[in-house]
Design goal:
Blueprint: H1 17-30, H2 34-48, E1 51-52, E2 57-58, E3 72-73, E4 78-79, E5 84-85, E6 90-92, E7 97-98, E8 103-104, E9 109-111, E10 115-116, E11 121-122, E12 127-128, E13 137-138
Parallel strand pairs: 1-3, 2-4, 3-6, 4-7, 5-8, 6-9, 7-10, 8-11, 9-12, 11-13
């Protein structure tokens, strides 16, 4: 089974531990139960080492492969549907707007009030501090040796 973009990854995906706790905390926050939402967030931090604030707006189909270990997302972030965020990703300094079907590789850092369009791929260990248009691919620069 595929979605409207012939993408099989998110059609039948059911939220697991860290994703489920985020969605619970967000729903509680939206219903006015901020203190209970904060407790759900702390459970997520303790059990899954995931720090996603209840204020973060994430569409349906969020996937955190490998349990999302080490993921940190700033409270002012907005993420679209079917995002895949690998472990040790940091979205910091607030205001990031991330589109639908975005893939963010392991160890990536997204800084500032940037906009990532739909169908964007961020490669592992990339630092993004600029806007990326729809369909853009960002990879980290080549490694080099400082001393032999």
């Amino acid at each position: 089974m595929v979605d409207e973009h012939n993408n099989p990854r998110a059609v039948d995906y059911k939220p697991k531990g860290a994703e489920w706790l985020y969605y619970l905390s967000h729903r509680l926050f939206k219903c006015g139960y901020a203190k209970i939402a904060s407790i759900a967030k702390r459970f997520n931090q303790f059990f899954f080492h995931v720090n996603i604030y209840p204020q973060v707006c994430i569409g349906r189909g969020l996937q955190l492969p490998h349990g999302g270990f080490g993921v940190v997302i700033h409270p002012d972030t907005v993420i679209g549907n079917d995002a895949i965020i690998f472990h040790n990703v940091t979205i910091a300094n607030g205001g990031a707007r991330i589109g639908d079907r975005v893939y963010i590789g392991t160890g990536s850092v997204i800084l500032g009030a940037v906009t990532l369009g739909n169908d964007v791929v961020i490669g592992a260990n990339s630092v993004v501090n600029f806007d990326v248009p729809d369909g853009g691919i960002v990879v980290s620069s080549k490694s080099f040796m400082i001393r032999k």
